Amino acid sequence: MFKLLRFYSIASFVAVLATALLIALFYRQVAIQGIMQLAERSNLALARTALNSVRPVLVDYLNSVAEAGMVNVSHRPPPELAAAIHSLMNESSVVRIKIYNQHGVVAFSTKTAQIGIDQRNNPGFISAINGRVANILVYRDTFNSYDDVTEEDNLMQTYIPIRANATDPVQGVFEIYTDVNNLVRQNERTGFIIVAGALLILTALYVALLLVVRRAHNIIKSQHQTIRERTETLEILSAHMLKSEESNKKKIAIELHEGLAQTLSAVKLNLESNRQKINGDDTLGKSMAAIIPALRSAIEDVRTIATELRPSSIDDLGLLPTINSLCQNFQQHHPGLQIQQDISLQEKDIPPPLKVILYRIIVLALDDIALNTDSDRIQISLMRDRNTLMLLIDDTPQASPDMATTVTGIDPDPESRFSKMLELTTLSGGRFAAARPAAGRIVLRATWNS
After folding, report:
1. Range(s) of the domain holding residue 380
2. pLDDT at 34
3. What mean pLDDT do residues 104-124 have?
């Protein structure tokens, strides 16, 4: 049985965790974009404020170090520029400043060791030297794809082109590093609160839905129990009805065979014994001569009906001899049909209630095959596989030119053609199936678990 409650609890728990993770990732991306926009605006404002006050001095300084060979560690910027940079770093969140000449060489850095380093391949420098502002947010312990170094703090890098005025060409690049630790911490705190809140809401929803599913599971379980009980009751009633029907047939068969047939036989014998006494009366003798064959035919019909209702040989001899006798009689009436028996069990292996059911299914199958198919061989297999009793009836059609097409699948109309076999098998607690492995061929399978 499908474990609805267990499946839902596990699947929904995984879904809640996945949803919380997606919310956290989504918020992180949105927050990073917000931090970048805010830090970019702040950096641009700080850098432009600083550049406006020292632009002439800065341009003269860049002209003095325009060539790559003019820059070295001992090179010092003008005092006015150094004072402006010092004031900018003390009064704001700026933690580092770099100035590049137009060849990409670091002409000034708050980290003295970086002065003179060639960074002409730095993407941020390339972007700024071409007149475009470049920004990148560097999280702690993440790789800086612009400077190829690992940063220790959360920083916002901004590369700003330096011009004497708006119409002049770019003479250098001003790089400013801003500390965004506060923004990042606030972002992480807000993200934690959002994720925690989302988890609480999703957990509450999970619990509520789990209660609903549990209630639904209990209702379904109760309904299944009711259906199971009703099915068991129907199976008991069906078995009782089948048993009662067979009992009535047996009773009628005995009455026909032992009662009416015996009475008719006695009348026939009496007429035959008195026939010699009244041979003198030709008219009466002729009448009796016509009555005796009619009585003989009536006796045979009564015995045939009794056998069809309930063969006495099943109770007297057993099912296997009865099947053998049935196949012999059937072949006598259908000379073109050969019946092969493959019975790999003994009489004691067949449950007594199933004996008459098996017999009736075989009779119905033989009559159906003889009437509806062009077969020259019928194979009847009766076997047991562990706790399963199986009856298999397979017919093979006569070879003909139009038999080349193979059709596989269930018989198109099993309810109408094999309805009685299906009914007998189902009412006796078994399973019935009819298939067409090939064109013109029928395979009937009935199984019972015991």
Report:
1. 318-449
2. 79
3. 86
Q: What is the overall mean pLDDT for the chain?
A: 77
C-alpha–C-alpha distance, residues 311 and 85, integer Å: 117
Q: Does residue 150 or residue 406 have the better pLDDT? A: 150
Residue with tokens 């009064």: 91
pLDDT, tens digit (0-9, with 9 covering 90-100), for 330-360: 888 888 888 999 988 888 888 888 888 898 8
Q: Is residue 254 part of a domain?
A: no
Q: β-pairing, 388-397 with 443-449?
A: antiparallel
pLDDT at 144: 47
Beta bridge partners of 69: none
Where a domain ends, among 137, 157, 179? Answer: 179
For residue 445, the number of C-alpha atoms closer than 13 Å in the C-beta half-sphere is 12
CA distance 59 to 127: 19
Mean pLDDT of 199-215: 86
- What CATH number corresponds to the domain at position 398? 3.30.565.10
- Residues 6 or more apart whose CB falls under 8 angstroms from that of 312 comprise 253, 254, 257, 306
Residues 179 and 89: their CA atoms lie apart, in Å, by 11
Please identify, among 158, 179, 200, the residue that sits at the C-terminal boundary of a domain.
179
pLDDT value of position 141: 46
- DSSP codes, 100-152: EETTSBEEEESSGGGTT-B-TT-HHHHHHHTT--EEEEE-TTSB-TTTSSB-S
d(CA 395, CA 104): 93
Selected residue with higher pLDDT from 41 and 405 = 41
Instruction: Please give the backbone phi and psi of residue 326, each rounded to the nearest 5 degrees, phi first.
Output: -60, -45
Query: 344: burial class by Cβ within 10 Å (0-12, 13-18, 19+)?
Result: exposed
Buried b (16+ CB within 10 A) or exposed e, 137-162: bbeeeeeeebbeeebeebbbbbbbbb
- At 239, list the tokens: 């078995």
